[in-house]
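cache lookup: miss for this entity combination. No prior model stored, computing from scratch. Input as submitted by user K.M.:
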Amino acid sequence: MSLRNAVMAALLDGGASGYDLAKTFDAAVANFWICTPQQLYRELDRMEADGLITARTVEQQRRPNKRLFTLTAKGAEELTAFTAQQHKPTAIRDELLVAVLAADHGDLEAVKASIRERRQWAEAKVERYERLRAKLLDGRTEDDFLATAERVGPYLTLLRGLSFERDNVRWCAKSLTVLERRGARLDAPT
Amino acid sequence: MSLRNAVMAALLDGGASGYDLAKTFDAAVANFWICTPQQLYRELDRMEADGLITARTVEQQRRPNKRLFTLTAKGAEELTAFTAQQHKPTAIRDELLVAVLAADHGDLEAVKASIRERRQWAEAKVERYERLRAKLLDGRTEDDFLATAERVGPYLTLLRGLSFERDNVRWCAKSLTVLERRGARLDAPT
DNA sequence: CTGACCTAGTCAACAAGTTGAGTATGTGAG
DNA sequence: CTCACATACTCAACTTGTTGACTAGGTCAG
């Protein structure tokens, strides 16, 4: 039920097609909600059926037609109702952590390789989020931005994604150090 | 498919009943994987059918019988194979963030209340994880522990959970400040 | 002029996660 | 003596999320 709220929140910035959302989700929402295009299209159809959004077919030259979705009054209302609800806390739910938990009885080298790969991925995400942040700030200081911007929500959620990935980088580095030292100890015990 | 790997990783410490797991998951695994008891029991049945674990019924005086599950050789093998796999990165997937994203067009007061509640929850988690950490360390320094412990996996995953919740606390505090200042500005614009 | 990649989707099948209720016994507080 | 709470589960229905394959036109490099 939350995907639809995430979609509605994304549509606050104006209309978008399913394809747009599938792409820009990666920039605007993906720091805290990921989904496949298939999920998105299915949800969009349902949301249209429920009257939360309306679709307008836009004919394009040199491109396939697309359906532009916009939030309806009912959609905006439901979104507001959602913001008024209580929200369950979530945990991380990461396969890599499961692998690390079992690393002592598993393939230590492979786990280390996975952590290295994850660190790189997280570093790339950090850079991406920082570029997005700079774009949002648009030369202003944070205080200035927060005082003048129409919406602060996207900035705050971006900050959360940013610090999450920074934390990932730090944790990956620390875990690698620990596991490498451990590998050394096991290879050459005194 | 990852729940079963998480369960197997949890069983590395020795056998446990479904009920035990449902409870101790909260301590050992819940920092990165949450599930309901129902999910757990269903998965345990399937895992037994697949020969990854074996169940031994333990009759107890003054308590209902319980089934004690232990990892089989096949289970340990599959777990090792899992650690050798690549693992997709995950995002946060948090309803509260969806609400914050939409906060500018939603019920600002309710969102602030939700953030406050979340901060308290996260603070409680931090304390809990710190107690767990102290218990794992058992008086030793971290270096000492890492050099002597049989398994470092549980410690590393605990650290991840800990820093995630610390980050949550920081983010909640910052967001509250921002939203409160904003509320003030909107109530009394110059 | 061909083959790879981009736009803009759709369909079907399945796996995983959530919700709500129900069973049965024992312990401890008031 | 009763009621809440803990142990130790089970069942069914439902909603979400994932995977893989498929359509169909346009662009651009070699």
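stored under new cache key. The beta strands of chain B are 16-17, 53-58, 66-71.
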